[in-house]
Design goal:
The chain has no helices and 49 strands. It is mainly beta and about 500 residues long. A six-stranded antiparallel beta sheet has the order 45-1-49-48-46-47, with no helix packed on it. A four-stranded antiparallel beta sheet has the order 2-44-43-35, with no helix packed on it. A four-stranded antiparallel beta sheet has the order 3-4-5-6, with no helix packed on it. The relative contact order is 0.15.
């Protein structure tokens, strides 16, 4: 029997990329299908015209220098991954923002196809020019191919724009096929199935403004929001997940308020039976801080997602989920010795240290319910998706934990089987805007102590037990991996 005593993350980053970039957007995925997760970062923000880069996956951690770089430099915002051409590989889409030193001139949004495990050096598609900072992957029309929502408008330069949706035509992107009727300021959005009807709705953060929710009806987003937040926010990164374990997806928003840091806050909007509460039920409020980034993930494998928060020149902190309620104070934090070395633009809980397991989920669905929620995430690679035994195209968000298949592939009684790789204990990946430092990875297993005893050793008593699916148990049942939380708060992973 082996007992692993889980602490959370080390007191210093396990990995740091080479400096020189104003890093902004972030994704982790096995791009070339070699089972080594790759780290993709978009650079520039509003400070410099820079490329998008990839740090190729390797053992034990990715390369610290880019192994791929786009030929086009821009003032890039965030990025997103999705299969646009239906070949089973993740393609890359990047938002083009605008630069202070460039007179806030418009940029273009760009698509880089994944050809046999390598992104094209130059974009195969660019949009009309605009000032778009955020981009979110979805499958709005239910064809199994990736669509992308761009969050646009620059409050710095007083240039509002509509948010707009581009969809895949099977080889490239086309559109916009939908946009907000009004010009707004928006930096981020997320697709989610808010009402559990099997399609993807849109949460749109405003910066500033009241956040909005648009429902998906028969493959089209509504033109008017079904929900707005009670008070104005200044959304940057948005995360979604089921925080209280009731089966409905909740929303977390990092509100930066860069012009008024005393207003900055992170908000949790719980989903009550398919409707978001208009006032957040949980808020962290730290005067003088700039909360810019949030991520959800089950860090202790007790079956509920914990919350990671980051900001500009602020510590990265973790709030533990205790039975559906987030702790009121952080259980872990990190900040470099020089606080100005950290400007967190995007946080991602993923897996880069190869601490992976293979999961296989089976879902019984009926037309037109084409979106399912993976039992484990973050995912870093999908090995196969079958509908009634047949392979089909799919769109997946490893970060948000949903997967979409073509609704036309479904019958009144269909079975979807998804086989994928995901993290046992997610690593924390941080994109850092400060160009004198690099991006950071905190490996979850770096600070795990190991006790090894004979197989005949007695099972540790007391506390709470869970299996790898997060189900609570009275005690371990046979051979396998189990998770124990003792009465004193010590966490263990035990393999029999």
């Amino acid at each position: 029997m082996i007992i692993l005593l889980i602490h959370q993350y080390p007191s210093a980053p396990s990995w740091e990329s080479s400096p020189g970039y104003y890093s902004t957007g972030l994704a982790v995925w096995d791009i070339n299908r070699d089972d080594y997760p790759d780290v993709i970062v978009s650079n520039g923000n509003d400070m410099a015209s820079q490329p998008v880069v990839m740090y190729g996956g390797a053992y034990p951690l990715p390369s610290t220098s880019p192994t791929w770089s786009s030929a086009m430099n821009q003032y890039h915002g965030h990025l997103a991954l999705g299969d646009v051409d239906g070949d089973g590989d993740m393609d890359l889409v990047v938002a083009g923002f605008s630069g202070y030193y460039d007179g806030w001139n418009r940029q273009v949004n760009a698509l880089y196809l994944n050809i046999d495990g390598t992104f094209t050096d130059t974009p195969v598609w660019v949009s009309d020019s605009g000032r778009c900072f955020g981009v979110s992957v979805g499958d709005a029309n239910g064809d199994g191919l990736a669509d992308f929502l761009f969050s646009c408008g620059n409050d710095y330069s007083s240039d509002p724009e509509p948010a707009r949706l581009y969809v895949s035509d099977g080889s490239t992107l086309t559109g916009p096929v939908w946009q907000t009727p009004d010009s707004i300021y928006s930096l981020g959005a997320k697709f989610l199935d808010v009402d559990n009807d099997g399609d993807l709705d849109l949460f749109l953060g405003l910066s500033p403004g009241r956040h909005r929710l648009y429902l998906n009806r028969d493959g089209m987003l509504d033109s008017t929001p079904v929900w707005e937040s009670e008070r104005e926010g200044f959304a940057n990164q948005i995360a979604v997940g089921d925080i209280n374990g009731d089966g409905w997806t909740d929303v977390v928003v990092a509100n930066t308020f860069q012009f008024s840091p005393d207003s900055s806050r992170v908000e949790v909007y719980l989903n009550v039976g398919g409707t978001l509460e208009t006032s957040p039920s949980w808020t962290t409020y730290d005067p003088g801080q700039y909360h810019s980034a949030v991520a959800l993930g089950d860090l202790d494998r007790d079956g509920d997602p914990d919350l990671v928060v980051g900001g500009w020149w602020d510590p990265i902190t973790i709030y533990e989920n205790l039975g559906g309620y987030l702790s009121s104070s952080p259980v872990w934090s990190w900040q470099p010795s020089n606080p100005y070395d950290l400007v967190a633009e995007y946080l991602l809980l993923s897996e880069v240290s190869l601490n992976l397991f293979v999961a296989e989920d089976t879902f019984n669905v009926s037309y037109p319910q084409h979106v399912v929620k993976l039992h484990f995430h973050p995912a870093i690679k999908v090995e196969s998706v079958l509908v009634d035994g047949r392979p089909v195209p799919y769109t997946v968000s490893g970060e948000s934990g949903w997967l979409s298949v073509p609704k036309d592939s479904l019958s009144s009684s269909s079975q979807i089987v998804v086989r994928y790789l995901c993290a046992i204990h997610p690593d924390l990946v941080v994109s850092n805007w400060e160009d004198s430092r690099g991006n950071f990875i905190f490996v979850h297993t770096d600070d795990i102590g190991v006790e090894e005893t004979k197989a005949s050793a007695p099972i540790p008593s007391g506390g709470v037990w869970y299996d790898v699916s997060g189900r609570r148990l009275e005690e371990p049942r046979g051979r396998g991996i189990y998770f124990q939380r003792t009465e004193s708060g010590v966490r263990r992973v035990i393999r029999f």
